[in-house]
């Protein structure tokens, strides 16, 4: 049972790191889109930056899955170790 808990813990951590990256990406994307829309309006184009919450949720879920993908192999290896041996090298 401990091995599954360690695997779950590592996968949740990898998903959280991916979600943080997704939040940063959403913020930067909206900032740049707003900046481009502002510059476009000053030049004479009718540009509007739109924030779609459904798309933002999709981006966060995708970022979590992408974070968990590469995190699976180290999580699987860590869950196979004895917890005392694994913590000795920390």
Low-confidence stretches: none
Helix percentage: over 70%
How many helices?
A: 3
Shape by Cα distribution: rod-shaped
Average pLDDT metric: 87
Count the beta strands.
0
Kindly name the structural category. mainly alpha
Instruction: Note the run of SSEs as H and E.
Output: HHH
Q: Which sheet architecture does the biggest sheet show?
A: none
- Give the strand content: under 5%
Features:
single chain; 90 residues; mainly alpha; 84% helix
Short description:
Helix content is 84%, strand content 0%.
Q: How would you describe the overall organization of this protein?
A:
The protein is mostly helical. The chain has one domain. The chain has 3 helices and no strands. Helix 1 runs antiparallel to helix 2. The model has no long low-confidence stretch (mean pLDDT 87).
How are the elements arranged and paired?
Elements: H1 2-43, H2 53-80, H3 83-88
